[in-house]
Amino acid sequence: MGEFCMPSLGADMDEGTLIEWFVAPGDLVRRGDIVAVVDTEKSDIEVEVFEDGTVTELLVDVGATVPVGTPLARIEATPRSRVTPSPAPAAPAAPAASGPPRGVPTTSRTAGRVLSPLVRHLAEDLRVDASDLRGSGPGGVVTRRDVERAARASQGAPAPRRPPAGAGTRLRASPYARRLAGERGVDLHGVVGSGPGGAVLATDVPIAAPPDRAGSRTVDRDGDVRGAIARSMARSKREIPHYYLQTTIDLGPALDWLRRRNEDRPVTERVLPAVLLLKATAVAAAEHPALNGRWEDGHRPASNVHLGVAIALRGGGIVAPGIADADRLPLDELMAALRDLSARARAGRLRQGEWTGPTITVTNLGDLGVDAVWGVINPPQLAMVGFGAVRDAVLAVDGLPAVRPAVITSLAADHRTSDGMQGAAFLGRIARLLGSPESLDPPTPDHHDDGAIP
Amino acid sequence: MTDTAEQCARELLARLLADIAPEVDLADARPDGQLQEELGLDSMDFLNLMIGVHEATGLEVPERDYPQLSTLEGAIGYLASRSS
Question: Do B36 and A367 touch (CB under 8 A)?
Answer without folding.
Answer: yes
